[in-house]
Amino acid sequence: IFSQVELAPADPILGLTDAFKADVRDNKVNLGVGIYKDESGQTPILKSVKFAEEKLLATEKSKSYLGMEGVEAYNRVVQTLLFGTEHAVISQSRALTAQAPGGTGSLRVAAEFLVRHTSSNKIWISNPTWANHNNIFSTAGLEIAEYRYYKAETHGLDFDAMLADLQTAEAGDLVLLHGCCHNPTGIDLDNAQWQQVADLCLAKSLVPLFDFAYQGFGSGVEEDAQGLRIVANTVPELIVANSFSKNFGLYNERIGAVTVVAANGDEAVNAFSQIKSTIRASYSNPPAHGALIVSTILEDETLKQLWHDELKEMRERIAEMRTLFVESLKAAGVEQDFDFISRQNGMFSFSGLNKDQVNRLRDEFAVYIVGSGRISVAGMTKTNMPVICAAIAKVL
Ligand code: PLP
Ligand code: TYF
């Protein structure tokens, strides 16, 4: 049977990491994959995580199976992070959360559930978006449609086009929204724009699906949740797939969650029962460690404060790199305006560099960025910045 199987194409982002590893040049820089690096180029384990793990090692009593929905305390703290302490969707029992393996696993569980148990089978995704969205949703059996989002001329949001495209969606269609730090553009909606999108979803009975992978990497944990909370205040139904890979640095623990918000408590219970049956048929129940780390941190005031401080440090280092990047490009003799980079949010900068320029950066200068021109600012340091900017100056 395997003689008929064709070789899969390389993933546009992970394939780049493989090429980077195979590169023998010693001045090479990987600004492809979205992994946070500190000033020394490392991705260390957060101190809050290490303390939580020490506590777990001393107190954990069993490795028995979790339920399909995972760690209960974890699911509670996830809801508080998403909606705040006193949101109506929590007090009215309209939100139910299941732990799932990372943001990717959460998106996949959500998509499988939607395809099998609801009449919603079409999802609108932004153009551009994270490359894996198309992959996850089409593999689960959702039909994909695109709404415009980015305006190349201004390096900004094309909000009118976004609304115009979503106006053509039909009742029950799903709309994928990046909670904050849009990947790959770094361009987010402001609160007034969020309200307009929420009103449109309400008027046309569209169902928002939030991909929330970067809470705390934009302006702050609460600030970054404003869009989600505005939408949750407006529409009766939505789904959230969130991830702690980046904001807790728990990449390889595969920890995220899928949250359904229904019009009332009874519908939430029914929908959640089918989320659980979807999980049962995929991996039965999730691994515990990542969830226990997150709940241990968020249920302990000291550890929680330490996590907030560490997250702030990551956020501020990235912001500092954005400013330095813009300045260093100027210093390297680049005349083109790159100020828009300091207005973008999160790990990524959408540089506007074209495919030829991206290829030259890799082939001639060993600087790796994604084919779309997306640069991981989180991989920049004061040390590699001059190398990066000199290379960009050359290919421009
Ligand atoms: N969604 C977006 C927009 C992302 O950028 C990522 C990771 O880079 C994810 C989801 C999934 O993250 P993970 O599955 O590693 O938690
Ligand atoms: O850089 C990005 O956009 C992501 C990173 O299992 C990533 O693709 C890498 C591996 C993974 C999920 C996300």
From TrEMBL:
<comment type="subunit">
    <text>Homodimer.</text>
</comment>
<dbReference type="GO" id="GO:0042802">
    <property type="term" value="F:identical protein binding"/>
</dbReference>
<keyword id="KW-0808">Transferase</keyword>
<feature type="domain" description="Aminotransferase class I/classII large">
    <location>
        <begin position="27"/>
        <end position="392"/>
    </location>
</feature>
<dbReference type="Pfam" id="PF00155">
    <property type="entry name" value="Aminotran_1_2"/>
</dbReference>
<protein>
    <recommendedName>
        <fullName>Aminotransferase</fullName>
        <ecNumber>2.6.1.-</ecNumber>
    </recommendedName>
</protein>
<dbReference type="GO" id="GO:0004838">
    <property type="term" value="F:L-tyrosine-2-oxoglutarate transaminase activity"/>
</dbReference>
<dbReference type="GO" id="GO:0004069">
    <property type="term" value="F:L-aspartate:2-oxoglutarate aminotransferase activity"/>
</dbReference>
<comment type="similarity">
    <text>Belongs to the class-I pyridoxal-phosphate-dependent aminotransferase family.</text>
</comment>
<dbReference type="GO" id="GO:0030170">
    <property type="term" value="F:pyridoxal phosphate binding"/>
</dbReference>
<dbReference type="InterPro" id="IPR015421">
    <property type="entry name" value="PyrdxlP-dep_Trfase_major"/>
</dbReference>
<keyword id="KW-0663">Pyridoxal phosphate</keyword>
<dbReference type="InterPro" id="IPR000796">
    <property type="entry name" value="Asp_trans"/>
</dbReference>
<dbReference type="InterPro" id="IPR004839">
    <property type="entry name" value="Aminotransferase_I/II_large"/>
</dbReference>
<dbReference type="GO" id="GO:0005829">
    <property type="term" value="C:cytosol"/>
</dbReference>
<dbReference type="InterPro" id="IPR015422">
    <property type="entry name" value="PyrdxlP-dep_Trfase_small"/>
</dbReference>
<keyword id="KW-0032">Aminotransferase</keyword>
<dbReference type="InterPro" id="IPR004838">
    <property type="entry name" value="NHTrfase_class1_PyrdxlP-BS"/>
</dbReference>
<dbReference type="GO" id="GO:0033585">
    <property type="term" value="P:L-phenylalanine biosynthetic process from chorismate via phenylpyruvate"/>
</dbReference>
<dbReference type="InterPro" id="IPR015424">
    <property type="entry name" value="PyrdxlP-dep_Trfase"/>
</dbReference>
